[in-house]
Amino acid sequence: MAIPHYRGVHFSGDTPEKPKITKALLLRILSYFRPYWKLLIVMLAAIVVTSALGVVSPLLTKDIIDIALPNRDIRLLVYYILLTFGTLVVLNLVTVGQSYLNTLISKRIIRDLRSEMFSHMQDMSLKFFSNVKAGEINSRINNDIGGIESIFSGTLIQIVQGVFIFATTTATLFYTNWMLALISLLTLPLFLAPTRKVGKTRWKIAGETQSKLAELTTLITETLNVSGTLLIKLFTREKDKSREFEKINEEVTQLGIREAVVGRWFFMTLQTFVALGPMLIYLFGGLILIKYQTVTIGGIVMFVTLLGRLYGPVNTFANIHVDVVRSMALFERIFQYFDLKSEISEKPDAVDVRGIKGFIRFEGVGFSYNEKSAVLSDITFEIVPGQMAAFVGPSGAGKTTITYLVPRLYDVTEGAVLIDGTDVRDMTLTSLRGQIGMVTQDTYLFNASIRENLLLAKPDATEEELVSACRTANIHDFIAALPDGYDTAVGDRGIKLSGGEKQRISIARTLLKNPGIVIFDEATSSLDSNSESLIQQAVEPLLKSRTSLVIAHRLSTIVSADVIFVVKDGRIAERGSHHELLQAGGVYKELYDKQFGAMYEAAD
Ligand SMILES: Nc1ncnc2c1ncn2[C@@H]1O[C@H](COP(=O)(O)OP(=O)(O)OP(=O)(O)O)[C@@H](O)[C@H]1O
Fold first, then answer.
1. How far apart, in whole angstroms, are the C-alpha atoms of residue 513 and residue 189?
2. Which residues contact 364 (CB under 8 A, 6 or more apart)?
């Protein structure tokens, strides 16, 4: 079976290729507007109104110069001025509404994209998170989705607005004087010439900036947390990390400066042409006026004013080319993530299995994390309901991996894992995982209160249930003695608690969940005997009357197991009870002698 490879996906560090603007991509982007079509129509209407009203004021200026002033008509002059003022007031009011709608729509689309990304990421498998860099996802959600906000709030609206302004303005120009209108339009191609070159350069720099920003985010995420800081402090690597940060930070700054400078030259060129336009109008308009009298002075002034409006959209179109390409690249990066399929997916006809008995069967199971080497091969065993199975074996033998296959954190590459006779791949993920409790060695707690961490297992648990689970897990007295009791914040990853306390909270959490199957990874780190016996007492009721898979390191746990599976090199090397296995004198005996023999000799 081909294993999907996330490393194959282009992540931030990749050199950006210029994206292809395809119809499919555009349609996909536009689909995000669909829920807001009513607001869009209102906004479009507002754009039409503002574009049309925009030409009214220059037209009135023409009449002031050509009619009111030569006729010395003060009433008409005041009338035109009031009309101009009124038009501008309406225009500005509509513009405010338009920009409000614009912000509303774009912010909501960004919200939708972020939520979609978050829930999509939650569907991704452990394999995905094992392969992706810590800051990568952060960067996609913040930098990339944040980066496209401008295309929604600015670029797309500017395109639409530009089209309307261009249409209304050119129509007015041609209506007034076709010859002068033609001259005005002829100056426009001069704009577009430098655009392409600048666009390409800016695109390249923008791509580099985005990937450097992702590097920066990764560095921050990896370094500035409890584990990262601990590592850096212990190895006294603060200066190196600061230097690394400064280097990338400087690169980002340089890129930013380059991008801005490229833009500046570009704008300077545009500004020069903008200044050239009115001069040409005065020159040719003046010539037409002097020679043919087909244009009036007011007409020429109006042309100059309208030309400013015409350059506006052209300027926008010129920049849009750059912005659109940049945004398309961001969209591609976002959609690339949306298109990643989790290899652990539910079949459409998956069954909802409730109240499982807990009969577990591994049937010729093979598994590998990657194509290179198999971690598990030909694993076959059965655990009957209520039985406690201990998995023992050397480090790296594959014990943890076996337990991961039961709740489908990974899928087998060969064979099958069955619960009560049903392949786990045929069950709904909610019903499967809802009935399996896992207490790992390294307990992860969210940076929240103890209560919130416990409620993760059962959000509607009553106070009595919480206390009862914690009493059973031998942690209630400890929690109750804390100044804030159950509302005590545990810190990042539960840093404020000891390893033993965290594991007992994890046991209480699993007790609250009350699953049919329990997976317990006993701590390898040597806890003091008091802490160890507290855990021992806590875990007993959890394992009692449930089917359990225990990765066992302590002799007492191993001895009390109903069945022991000895895992070696990804295979079940031996199986049986403690005494049977000792008598067999194989791998188990060897392990026992090495791990516990010396301990007992020393104790004698
Ligand atoms: N996410 C992963 N990607 C690739 N290889 C992995 C991954 N997790 C574990 N492995 C490899 O799979 C093998 C089995 O690991 P596993 O954690 O199942 O061993 P274990 O018997 O539980 O060891 P220990 O007792 O030390 O925890 C090891 O060689 C390990 O390097």
1. 70
2. 378, 379, 380, 414, 415, 416
Question: Ligand 1 within 6 A of 570 CB?
Answer: no
From the CA of 130, give the closest atom in ligand 1: 1
More confident residue, 41 or 493: 41
Which domains, from first to last, does the chain contain?
360-599 (3.40.50.300)
- Does ligand 1 have an atom closer than 6 angstroms to the CB of 399? yes
pLDDT for res 398: 93
Q: In what order do the strands lie in the sheet with 547-551?
A: 436-439, 517-521, 547-551, 388-392, 563-568, 571-576
264 residue type, one letter: R
Between the CA of 414 and the centroid of ligand 1 the distance, in Å, is 18
* Lowest model confidence (mean pLDDT) among 70-79, 274-283, 338-347, 530-539: 530-539
Distance 402 CA to ligand 1 centre (A): 10
User: DSSP string spanning 83-122?
Assistant: HHHHHHHHHHHHHHHHHHHHHHHHHHHHHHHHHHHHHHHH
Q: What is the pTM of this model?
A: 0.75
Are the beta carbons of 326 and 486 closer than 8 angstroms? Answer: no
595 in contact with ligand 1, CB cutoff 6 A? no
Give the residue-averaged pLDDT of 40-61: 92
Distance CA 591, CA 390 (A): 14
Q: Is residue 395 within 6 Å of ligand 1 at its C-beta?
A: yes
CB atoms within 10 A of CB 2: 6
Q: Is the beta carbon of 396 within 6 A of some atom in ligand 1? A: yes
Q: Model confidence at 313, in pLDDT bands (50, 70, 90)?
A: confident
For residues 375 and 367, give the distance between their C-alpha atoms in angstroms, rounded to a whole number.
6
Which residues 6+ apart lie within 8 Å of 434 measured at CB? 515
Mean pLDDT of 67-77: 92
Distance from residue 399's CA to the centre of ligand 1 (Å): 8
Tokens of 491: 């810190």
**Pocket mutation for ligand 1, best pick of 3, 400, 520 (most atoms within 8 Å of C-beta):** 400
